[in-house]
């Protein structure tokens, strides 16, 4: 129903089918002139470095001035403007020619003074809400919350005292000697990570998601989203690893009693799958049941560990001696002290097998959403668990009680004290001959028997129970952690396809769907059935997570953001960095291809999230560092003088809000692209209370910036509230930007309705141009025949959307009749005009057809008139448009002017397809009827009045065009008419025309006459840009 209504509305309003891409242009305000009124001196000009001017002439009024000979004859009247010349672009002291200084913008623009002073020379969003400050939507009354002991300490200890303690620790001691280095290196990595994690989790409220939450809120969604999937997957695979450890123990028992079901590997798979199903049932039952099960398992595990220590002091029986156990003995300790790596094992391969035991430090953090006070519980419980378990691992010094190899055969007993040699010498001295183990592999000893703990203990079945407890508790913790982390990732909706798994059930918001997915993954890896294959994969995934946790702490500290205030103070940013580097190094040493695969997956996920740009803002340290870098770079730039080689057009486009002037914004964006500054500006002029204007401005700031970002315009949005539009524009001209990153070029649209807009509006428009010249901005005006402003279409669209909302909220039938009556379709003629306007407005968004950009470089303004079109040709959309250059000249030296321009362009390394010298610009236009009709309403006609009456009329209407003014500037007026004629003849089919903008001298040329000049110059032409640089070089031919 709703879709059909929307379709009906859009049928009545076809203009809503178009996309809109630029901004509201407000021309209702005024801008005051520069109060200083002082002279502008060219800081780049040094009179001591220049030779006397080369070109000089004396005019009919006796005035002597430097001027290029072709200027007068080319334009037909006296002008200070210079045609483009290579001498303006030379460095001071150039050996290849004299450096000439073009007239300054102020000399052309300021009030004309007949008496020139000797010392006057030429011149060359409201912050986004804190998402983490809100109460979590899933918090429900009656949910089970844990303290630091049950929630963190117990879980971490159970996870660390996992499968490695009873099944692999003896093997580690046998391969790596005493094993202290392996255990110590693991403890170093986990301790540094624990310190970093403690700092991060005490820097604000911690929600559910564990390591993913900590990383994403610290480094941002790109890092968090990439590591979140890997971390959740690693926990799911860890379930398989722990269950395989449990199944191995069960299979060993079956093997001892000759009760294998199929064979060893398949029995491990069968038992593992059954075990995971049982664990899944406990997990789905809820966190409370899972926590109770963990307490029971912890008690069993503690009893088993104590049982091991007791067993080492009980005198060894003959059976145990035959299997390599001789109680504590210094000779055994010394023999096992040095490593003895076998079967291609190395220190790091052994470390890779052992390290997954250390991954348990995140077991408590992974259920952060189920903790009463995560900020206090995670640091306290995690660090205490690392200390307790580290001491335990080191204390179980089985390498001082058990030899590496033993036969298990009592008949190998010999008389102690005989001659002994080889690797079994210690056993020989203790009364057993295990020399056969040097020839063939034995079944007992540290290197061969994974069930050494059971043999050493005081009561063997307790070790079996402890093994079951350790493996099952670790598997249960990982089975709970993986869905919890995955659910937090899905809730953030970073990967929209995974949002299905965000849904929770019950008072604890249990991720049932995540449990099922974890179950499937763990079963898949259980079918591998080989613990040594699974462990290195787990090591790499967890090490990647550890590396990012450490880097998060370093990054946040390095950014020195005022928001980084962790309550936990016992951390060091450089230690965290060392921890991150250590984790990365260990990843490659353990398994280089697995490390590359891990980073490859992480980079791909990072790129995916970066491209998708999730709509989240967590105040990450990445933002803080970006800000710090931006400030640092801006300050560095401010300490370096601008150089012409590094000039970039930094555009201040008077677009208004970010939707209603597409063509102007698109063209400005083409000039700046990703390599320069583009600033969209608007001035709010309060019609009512100022507070309302400020509210409107503040509400629109973030909205417009988001629209620019969403439509991939690399631009900033700036708004000011002033009494008039002109005053606001002056504020933007003066205060926009930062240091060297400030606009240098003003871009605005041509005022098509100047004849009907009213005197004040025209004075405001021309006044803004005067202000731009006063502040030494380059100035660009865009004119398109269809116009630029689509604000009325945007307003119609917004009204239609409001009507559509009403349609949804109210009864369908009642609101439907209302919406149709209020927002009826426009008349056919208006709709057609709107369609043409929208088509023209999107012209610069599309790829331009094969054609030309015609550059009419009539006056030397520093090169901006040439640089901007060249920049366009470097963009993809304009690559099929070739430059054509048009210059003014005189008949007797046309070829010479062409060669000079060709040489200049070659030095500038700017290619063009054609250079045309227009040598008849000085001729009178064929007709001036259009201009006369245009300015007739604004003429004073004081010529037929006597002097007193004329002065009174001029005083009453000072803005009108006087007969004296028309007569005085007749030649310049005729030049604009003539230029339009030659433009019509030569550039009617161009994709874009660029023309040097004429300048109106203040207090000499009236605003309406100047607007008439601009109008007749650009009338009935393709899209036209009027450009005037600030008369400082933006091009150079020096390297």
Specify the biggest β-sheet.
10 strands, mixed
Number of helices: 36
Give the beta-strand count.
12
Helix content: 40-55%
Strand order across the largest sheet: 5-4-3-6-7-12-11-8-9-10
Overall mean pLDDT stands at 78
| CATH architecture classification name of the domain at 148-273 and 341-396 and 490-612 | Up-down Bundle
Global Rg: 41 Å
Q: What's the CATH first level of the domain at 148-273 and 341-396 and 490-612?
A: Mainly Alpha
CATH superfamily of the domain at 148-273 and 341-396 and 490-612: Amino acid/polyamine transporter I
Please report the distance between the alpha carbons of the first and last residues.
Answer: 67 Å
Note poorly predicted spans. Answer: 1-57, 114-140, 812-823
Strand content: 5-15%
Protein name: Solute carrier family 12 member 1
Catalytic activity: K(+)(out) + 2 chloride(out) + Na(+)(out) = K(+)(in) + 2 chloride(in) + Na(+)(in)
Domain Amino acid permease/ SLC12A: 151-652
Membrane topology: Multi-pass membrane protein
What would your notes on this structure say?
- With 1039 residues, this protein is mainly alpha-helical.
- Among the domains are: 148-273 and 341-396 and 490-612, Amino acid/polyamine transporter I (Up-down Bundle), CATH 1.20.1740; 646-800 and 841-845, 3-Layer(aba) Sandwich (Rossmann fold); 853-1020, no CATH class.
- 51% of the residues lie in helices and 6% in strands.
- It contains 36 helices and 12 strands.
- The strands form 2 sheets. A 10-stranded mixed sheet has the order 5-4-3-6-7-12-11-8-9-10, sandwiched between helices. It has a two-stranded antiparallel ribbon with strand order 1-2.
- Strand 9, helix 31 and strand 10 (914-918) form a beta-alpha-beta unit.
- Helix 6 packs across helix 19, helix 7 (210-219) packs parallel to helix 17 (460-491) and helix 7 packs parallel to helix 19.
- The chain starts with a helix and ends in an 11-residue tail after the last strand.
- Mean pLDDT is 78; it is low at 1-57, 114-140 and 812-823.
């Amino acid at each position: 129903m709703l879709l059909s209504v929307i379709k009906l509305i859009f049928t009545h309003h076809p203009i809503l089918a178009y996309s809109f891409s630029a901004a509201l242009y407000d021309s209702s305000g005024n801008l005051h002139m520069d109060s200083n009124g002082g002279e502008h001196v060219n800081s780049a000009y040094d009179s001591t470095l220049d030779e006397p001017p080369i070109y000089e002439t004396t005019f009919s009024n006796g005035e002597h001035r430097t001027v290029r000979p072709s200027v007068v004859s080319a334009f037909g009247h006296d002008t200070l403007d210079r045609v483009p010349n290579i001498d303006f672009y030379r460095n001071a002291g150039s050996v290849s020619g004299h450096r000439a200084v073009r007239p300054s913008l102020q000399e052309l623009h300021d009030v004309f003074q007949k008496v020139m002073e000797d010392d006057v020379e030429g011149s060359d969003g409201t912050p986004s809400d804190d998402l983490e400050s809100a109460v979590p939507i899933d918090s429900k009354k009656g949910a089970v919350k844990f303290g630091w002991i049950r929630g963190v300490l117990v879980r971490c200890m159970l996870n660390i005292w996992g499968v490695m303690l009873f099944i692999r620790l003896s093997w580690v001691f046998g391969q790596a000697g005493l094993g202290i280095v392996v255990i110590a290196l693991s403890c170093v990595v986990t301790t540094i990570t624990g310190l970093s994690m403690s700092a991060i989790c005490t820097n604000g409220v911690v929600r559910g998601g564990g390591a993913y939450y900590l990383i994403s809120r610290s480094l941002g969604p790109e890092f968090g989203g990439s590591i979140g999937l890997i971390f959740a997957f690693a926990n799911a695979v860890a379930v398989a690893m722990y269950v395989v450890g449990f199944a191995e123990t069960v299979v060993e028992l079956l093997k001892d009693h000759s009760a294998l079901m199929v064979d060893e590997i398949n029995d491990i798979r069968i038992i593992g799958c059954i075990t995971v199903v049982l664990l899944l049932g406990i997990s789905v039952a809820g966190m409370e049941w899972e926590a109770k099960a963990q307490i029971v398992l912890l008690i069993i595990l503690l009893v088993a560990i104590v049982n091991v220590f007791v067993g080492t002091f009980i005198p060894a029986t003959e059976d145990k001696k035959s299997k390599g156990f001789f109680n504590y003995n210094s000779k055994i300790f010394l023999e096992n002290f040095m490593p003895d790596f076998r079967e291609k094992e190395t220190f790091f391969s052994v470390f890779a097998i052992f390290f997954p035991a250390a991954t348990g430090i995140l077991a408590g953090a992974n259920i952060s959403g189920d903790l009463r006070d995560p900020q206090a519980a995670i640091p306290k419980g995690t660090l205490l668990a690392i200390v307790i378990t580290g001491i335990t691992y080191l204390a179980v010094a089985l390498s001082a009680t058990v030899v590496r190899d033993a036969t298990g055969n009592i008949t190998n007993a010999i008389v102690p004290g005989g001659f002994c040699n080889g690797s079994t010498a210690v056993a020989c001295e203790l009364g057993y001959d295990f020399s056969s183990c040097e020839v063939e592999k034995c079944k007992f000893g540290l290197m061969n028997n994974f069930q050494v703990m059971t043999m050493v203990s005081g009561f063997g079945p307790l070790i079996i129970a402890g093994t079951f407890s350790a493996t099952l508790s670790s598997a249960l913790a990982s089975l709970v952690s993986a869905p919890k982390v995955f659910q937090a990732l899905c809730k953030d909706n970073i990967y929209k396809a995974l949002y299905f798994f965000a849904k929770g059930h019950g008072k604890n918001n249990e991720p049932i769907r995540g449990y099922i997915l974890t179950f499937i993954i763990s079963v898949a890896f259980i079918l591998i059935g080989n613990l040594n294959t699974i462990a290195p994969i787990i090591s790499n995934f967890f090490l990647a997570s550890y590396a990012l946790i450490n880097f998060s702490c370093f990054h946040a500290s390095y950014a020195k953001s005022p928001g980084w205030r962790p309550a936990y103070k016992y951390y060091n940013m450089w230690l965290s960095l060392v921890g991150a580097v250590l984790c990365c190094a260990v990843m490659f040493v353990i398994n280089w291809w697995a490390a590359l695969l891990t980073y490859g997956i992480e980079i791909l996920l990072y790129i995916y999230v970066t491209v998708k740009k999730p709509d989240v803002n967590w105040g990450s340290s990445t933002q803080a560092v970006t800000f710090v870098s931006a400030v640092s770079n801006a300050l560095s730039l401010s300490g370096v003088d601008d150089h012409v080689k590094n000039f970039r057009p930094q555009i201040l486009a008077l677009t208004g809000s970010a939707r209603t002037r597409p063509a102007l914004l698109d063209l400005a964006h083409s000039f700046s692209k990703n390599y320069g500054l583009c600033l969209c500006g608007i001035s709010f002029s309060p019609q009512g209370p100022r507070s309302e204007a400020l509210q409107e401005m503040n509400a629109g700031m973030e909205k417009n910036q988001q629209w620019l970002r969403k439509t991939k315009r690399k631009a900033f949005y700036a708004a000011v509230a002033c009494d008039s539009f002109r005053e606001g524009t002056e504020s933007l001209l003066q205060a926009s930007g930062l240091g060297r990153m400030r606009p240098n070029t003003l871009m605005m649209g041509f005022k098509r309705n100047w004849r009907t807009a009213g005197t004040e509006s025209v004075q405001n428009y021309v006044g803004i141009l005067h202000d731009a010249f006063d502040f030494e901005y380059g100035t660009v005006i865009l004119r398109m025949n269809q116009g630029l402003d689509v604000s009325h279409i945007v307003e119609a669209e917004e009204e239609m959307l409001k009507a559509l909302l009403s349609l949804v909220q109210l009864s369908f039938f009642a609101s439907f009749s209302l919406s149709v009556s209020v927002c009826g379709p426009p008349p056919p003629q208006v709709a057609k005009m709107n369609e043409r306007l929208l088509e023209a407005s999107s012209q610069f968004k599309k790829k331009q057809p094969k054609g030309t950009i015609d550059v009419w470089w009539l006056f030397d303004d520093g090169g901006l008139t040439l640089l901007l079109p060249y920049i366009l040709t470097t963009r993809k959309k304009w690559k099929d448009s070739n430059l054509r250059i048009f210059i003014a000249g005189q008949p007797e030296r046309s070829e010479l002017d062409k060669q000079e321009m060709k040489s200049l362009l070659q030095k500038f390394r700017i290619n063009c397809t054609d250079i045309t010298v227009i040598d008849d610009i000085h001729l009178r236009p064929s007709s001036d009827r259009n201009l006369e009709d245009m300015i007739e309403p604004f003429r004073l006609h004081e010529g037929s009045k006597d002097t007193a009456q004329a002065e009174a009329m001029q005083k009453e209407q000072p803005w009108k065009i006087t007969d004296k003014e028309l007569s005085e500037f007749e030649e310049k007026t005729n030049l604009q008419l003539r230029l339009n004629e030659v433009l019509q003849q030569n550039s009617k089919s161009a994709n874009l025309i660029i023309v040097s903008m004429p300048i109106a001298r203040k207090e000499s040329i009236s605003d309406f006459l100047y607007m008439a000049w601009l109008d007749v110059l650009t009338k009935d032409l393709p899209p036209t840009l009027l450009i005037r640089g600030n008369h400082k070089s933006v091009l150079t031919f020096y390297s």
